[in-house]
Specification:
The complex is a heterodimer of chains A (312) and B (206). Chain A has 312 residues and is mainly alpha-helical. Chain A is built from nine helices and two strands; from the N terminus they run ββααααααααα. Chain B is mainly α and 206 residues long. Chain B has one domain. Classes of the chains: A mainly alpha (312), B mainly alpha (206).
């Protein structure tokens, strides 16, 4: 046993520990490329085995296993570490790298101080704190902004390529496979870049600053990124909605009377207002959809107007 | 026979893609806007598949998979919509709405699968204690079950839609099909409205 001091990132000594070299495989090994790369690839399965009792615990334990194998030489210490990470865990899947990197670093430190219950408790606390913090950021960045932007990108590509079937459902135009697949794949490329980049950078930054509860939260200027994505999404949305109205008018103006066009525009505005009202009352989009279907069925079964001329 | 085989292959393919939705990767290759044209292309109707896919995606953007919430499944909705049209013989619009229903009901199956996996935990912990845990096998099993169940669900739902279609045409449901055409033509605007107001709310939020 060798007496040693354990320090946190700012250099402040917080406790004296005893280092048991027999139980530590090689504390520096986890910094080598191999385990972090293996952890990175395994992190894509973070949601595998998602369950209600412990949420992402199975995925997290699976992802961190290569690093734990490097850190702990004895099977007993390794099993204890795996068991520790089978506890409740939940974060935004793309942000898990930050938590993983941090916890790997803390596991290395814990390996230098086996049986230190206080530090083990701290590790669990930091893991929970980081998972909540990054879940909140990740939900805003990915689910709230990037994902809808990928849909907008798909619409933009189809719009520019002249495929308007997404707007005029009766349109029989058949675009090429390149256009059809190019739309969704454009969004996937952008989204995939962010998703992979943040996982990898998160793992590295998390490892670099491991041991503190706000580690990695300042890795990027999140509020600015979120704000920029919101503005980008808004500009896209506005352009698409204006473009859609322009198309509706251009599509109908040559053949339809002004009254018919006005009726179609009114119908569209009513649908948009319905979406807003149902949202305001906390109802999902299914509620608005149900109303539209019910009204359509009522119109066609009660009044039976034949082939209605308000198809958009 | 070939059309049944195509539907089966499409269902299994969709089941495989479903893994990307939650359990593995999450690169968005399971997004309805891609699944729609892909399954449409497999079944000879890529443009209709693309329309069903994108409209499904626009509608399903309303749901965010935060925490333990199980949102309706866009992939299942798009797959059932496309197969309902190509295999079931329903009009595109009616197939789309049945697809939305299928995606909504699938959340119940997903919930049960998650509950099932909860029952594994005590066994996994016991294995971890005595060092016999093979987590990769457990996770592979989890992926396999999810993929197979999704494929099976899509295939069965497509068969049901084929029956509905046959019954609908025999019983003279023409008016209902025309009604669904009208409702379907309004769906892009419903989705665009959701998309626009989502971002406008974010931009103006302090």
């Amino acid at each position: 046993m060798v007496s040693d001091k354990w320090e946190v990132n700012d250099g402040e000594t917080i406790m004296s520990i005893e280092l048991n070299k027999d139980q530590v495989n090689d504390p520096g090994l986890a910094t080598s490329r191999l385990p972090l790369t293996a952890v990175f690839f395994r992190s894509f399965l973070i949601q595998a085995g998602w369950n209600y009792e412990r949420l992402q615990n199975l995925g997290f334990a699976f992802a961190i296993t290569p690093a734990l194998r490097r850190i702990y030489a004895s099977n007993k210490a390794f099993n204890a570490a795996v068991l520790r990470h089978l506890g409740l865990f939940n974060t935004q899947p793309y942000m898990v790298g930050f938590v993983l990197g941090n916890i790997i670093k803390m596991e290395e430190d814990l390996a230098r101080a086996p049986g230190n219950a206080e530090f083990e408790k701290k590790l669990i606390g930091v893991k929970q704190a980081l998972s909540s913090g990054f879940a909140s950021i990740g939900d805003r960045v990915f689910w709230g902004r990037l994902k809808p932007i990928t849909t907008q990108l798909c619409i933009a590509v189809w719009f520019l390529a002249g495929f308007y079937g997404w707007l005029f459902t009766g349109d029989g135009y058949r675009p090429s496979a390149l256009v059809l697949f190019g739309g969704p794949l454009a969004g996937i490329a952008v989204y995939g870049f962010f998703a992979v980049y943040l996982r990898w950078i998160g793992l590295k930054k998390g490892y670099a600053c491991g041991g503190i509860a706000n580690c990695g939260l300042d890795a990027m200027r999140w509020p600015e990124l979120i704000r920029r994505l919101s503005v980008t999404g808004f500009v896209f949305s506005l352009s698409i909605v204006l473009g859609a109205f322009g198309l509706l008018i251009a599509h109908n103006l040559p053949g339809e009377s002004k009254g018919s066009l006005a009726m179609k525009l009114t119908l569209v505005l009513c649908v948009m207002a319905l979406q807003r009202v149902t949202r305001k009352f906390g109802r999902s989009i299914f509620f608005a959809m149900g109303i539209i279907v019910a009204v359509s069925v009522a119109v066609f079964t009660v009044f039976n107007p034949g082939k209605f001329n308000i198809y958009l | 026979m070939i059309i049944v085989l195509k539907a089966l292959i499409s269902s299994l393919f969709a089941g495989l893609l479903q893994l990307d939705n939650v359990q593995a990767g999450q690169f968005l290759i399971s997004r309805p806007a891609l699944v729609g044209p892909a399954l449409g292309w497999l079944n000879g109707c890529p443009a209709e598949g693309a329309k069903i896919g994108l409209l499904t995606e626009l509608i399903y953007l309303d749901f965010i998979p935060v925490g333990g919430v199980v949102p309706p499944c866009g992939l299942v909705a798009a797959a059932v919509g496309v197969l309902g049209f190509a295999f079931g013989g329903l009009p595109e619009s009616t197939a789309f709405f049945f697809g939305i229903l299928a995606g909504f009901l699938y959340a119940n199956l997903e919930y049960r699968l998650r509950v099932l996996r909860s029952s594994w935990i005590s066994g996994i912990e016991a294995q971890a204690k005595d060092g016999t845990l093979r987590l990769e096998r457990r996770l592979a099993g989890s992926l396999l079950i999810e993929s197979a169940m999704t494929g099976f669900y899509i295939f069965i739902f497509s068969w049901l839609l084929a029956l509905v279609s046959g019954f609908g045409f025999c019983a003279g449901f023409g008016a209902l099909f025309r009604a669904s055409d009208l409702a379907y033509s309004l769906m892009p605007w419903l989705g665009l409205s959701g998309l626009y107001f989502r971002f406008s709310t974010q931009v103006y939020k302090k």
